[in-house]
Amino acid sequence: MNHTIFNRKIDHDQPSSIKSVVFGAGCFWGVERKFWSLSGVVMTSVGYAGGDHDEPSYELVCAGITGHAEVVKVDYDPTIISLMELLKIFWECHDPTQGMRQGNDVGTQYRSVCYSSNNEDLIIIKESLIKYQESLSESNLGMITTEVKIEDKYFLAEEYHQQYLDKNPNGYEDFSNFIKNQPDSFQDLSLDTHDNATIFYTSGSTGYPKGVLSSHRNILATLFSWALVTTLKREVEDSKANLDQDDSSPKNQSAILHCVPLFHVTGSHAGFLMSIIAGRKMVMMSKWDPGAALQLIQDEKIGAITGVPTQTWDLLTHPDRDKYDLSSFKELSGGGAPRPPEHVKKLKDGFNDAEPSIGYGLTETNAAGTLNLGKDYLSHPGSCGKAVPPVTDVAVIDENWNFLDEEKAVGEIVIKSPANMVGYWMNQEATDEVFNDDGWFKSGDLGYIDDGFVYIVDRVKDMVIRGGENISCIEVETAIYAHPSVQELSLIHI
Length: 494
Known about the structure:
Blueprint: E1 4-5, E2 8-9, E3 19-25, H1 28-35, E4 41-49, H2 58-62, E5 69-76, H3 83-92, E6 101-102, E7 105-106, E8 112-116, H4 119-138, E9 147-150, E10 154-156, H5 164-167, H6 175-180, E11 196-201, E12 211-215, H7 216-240, E13 255-258, H8 265-278, E14 281-284, H9 290-299, E15 304-307, H10 309-317, E16 331-334, H11 341-350, E17 355-361, E18 369-373, H12 374-379, E19 386-387, E20 393-397, E21 411-416, E22 423-424, H13 428-434, E23 441-450, E24 453-459, E25 464-466, E26 469-471, H14 473-481
Parallel strand pairs: 8-9, 13-14, 13-15, 15-16, 16-17
Antiparallel strand pairs: 1-2, 3-5, 3-8, 4-5, 4-10, 6-7, 11-12, 12-22, 17-18, 18-19, 20-21, 21-23, 23-24, 25-26
Helix pairs in contact: 3-4, 7-8
């Protein structure tokens, strides 16, 4: 490419005294603007780095299939501006704790990175990261996820991206100005249930995150299934209630503490969309803080929480829990990770009238899968429950797609449901790998079914083999959690 940056050829020979550093902090348009006018910065350009594709393009990078991050290459004169000064601007111009995103921009391309071309600068970068992390830790603001390494492959982005905000000064238009210029009415659109609705990104636990494309029908299948379950549960509870109870006393509006991101299906579907269907109040938390959560439960009369299991455990074990009125608390829902069986009864005993539950599903299934609640959960605490009625089926297969009908036969869990995704966005090969012709989806999780209850053993790729014997990481965790002195643990492969 023969681009020019401010009318200067980008591929010109730089003096040997000029040094370079590569920053990734979200969309490269805005990041570049932070650096291009600094005294001592000779040149900036935007491009792609940190991936495994030799010919990245904007379309491929945005699709999340190359592993590249959107980056800014900063050429600078170290006699005028130091690397530490540039790093200060880098850390302060974005949130390096957000992982594969910056704000509303989600995907591997928006991850925080800092790449050097030599070991000397790499040491300075790592020292800077440690100092900045210390500052964040003092304020309890999370852990830095920035990828720091030596990277010598930098691919220049397309010419129209270079100094984009100089060419388009209103490229990041203020929202208030944006809405002023919009028409008073919206154009009528014809939507079908099979039309595409969302793209959520997978966690990337077994590779780079993939865009999960779902239709309106996929999402509604999940929501209507959950609504059926909760309606039936409510009918049973009402039938057991004292009919002579005085109904004239004022009742609080149902409320949920929403403490997981909306870019996860748990946050979007179980928390947000189900609240709209149920007509319940949502109390939002920007960052998880168990002390603040206890205060909100008391003040807002919170009846339910939907989050990862560690969050309900944080509430139970918080030293100030007994100082708050938690009598409104009724539902302790969890998902996204298994809850140690030992925790289930402790949660039930610790929160009196509150009922723990666990759900199992994936981004690819729009969180539909299994559900375990009530007495079933107390009697089967190690299970993620039974298939959510009425349209979800769960089974177990071997590596050749043979269905295992024998009780407790361990294999890969597969799910069939109208909630299953359309496919991976712009990645038909990956889509074909996880679906068979009958619409069954391979979860990547190992497990078995016993009397309809699904038990997850491990991830397919996480199973440890020692001496020819399969060892489940989850089984090891469960055994350790049984010890009364253990509050939290994690297993890592070394």
